[in-house]
Amino acid sequence: MNERRLVIGGTFFLFLVSSAIVTYEQVQIGNLKGELRHMKILMKAGVRSVPSPSASSPSGPAKNPSGVASFESDTTNTAMGIKDFSTLLPPLVSQGRLLHLTHRSQVRFVAYHLVVFELQDEKGHTLPVLFNVEDPETSVSWRYLYSFSPR
What confidence tens digit (pLDDT) does each residue in 28-37 have? Predict the structure, then answer.
């Protein structure tokens, strides 16, 4: 009887271990699929290179060693200076509305050159818009990618 319990217990233990391994592998596959999907989005957006996660600082805009403002602060400053974003958007998206940024917190950096601006119109409605920002100091070079507007 003791040997039978040992065999049943060992089988149950092996089942639990194999289930844990399969679950772990499924999670890893899911993570890799997510990264692949993210890389496809970046390639479609025209982003040339993506910095490593350790290179990006999680604590907002940072200064680089030479004292020159970083990509984030340059983009934010230029975006705050634009009085009307409707000239940078397709006519179907802007619909003749005056769209502008009201606060710095409405600029979100998704990945390397991908930036979401939460634009507001004169009625206070928010329109999140995704841009590919190659040169942060020249808004004309910004490429509109997508807007999150309801149809």
Answer: 888 888 888 8
Q: Specify the pTM.
A: 0.52
- Domain assignments of the chain as residue spans, ordered by start: 1-45, 71-147
d(CA 21, CA 106): 43
